[in-house]
Design brief:
The chain has about 120 residues and is mainly β. The protein is built from no helices and 11 strands. The chain is about 0% helix and about 60% strand. A hairpin with a 6-residue loop joins strand 4 and strand 5. The protein starts with a strand and ends with a strand.
């Protein structure tokens, strides 16, 4: 299974970006897909996660600003990020747990930079 992430970039504070992560390969079931981020000098942290059935969970720092969604027909997870702040600057990674736990893969990361 391969994960291809896209959508990062440079945005001013208060702006928006939409990240996408498409999974390809032998996919029979989506357990969950999620977004994590890692800022310079910090550990990777969970941003948002969505189950194959549509249940979601968010980090407190992004709840109300970010929205995760899943297109099961395209095996693609999205992260709509609104009201971005400089502290959201990080490399964002998508993760997919598929095929009843047999697959646990990471995308290549996409850089999000928010200027003040």
């Amino acid at each position: 299974v391969q994960l291809q992430a896209s959508g990062g970039g440079l945005v001013q504070a208060g702006g928006s970006l939409r990240l996408s992560c498409a999974a390809s390969g032998k996919i029979f079931a989506i357990n969950n897909m999620g977004w994590y981020r890692q800022a310079p000098g910090k550990q990777r942290e969970l941003v948002a996660i969505i189950t194959g059935g549509g249940g979601t969970n968010y980090a407190d720092s992004v709840r109300g600003r970010f929205t995760i969604s899943l297109d099961n027909t395209k095996n693609t997870v999205y992260l709509q990020m609104n009201s971005l702040q400089p502290e959201d600057t990080a490399v964002y990674y998508c993760n997919a747990k598929l095929n009843w736990g047999r697959v646990d893969d990471w995308g290549q990361g996409t850089l999000v930079t928010v200027s003040s």
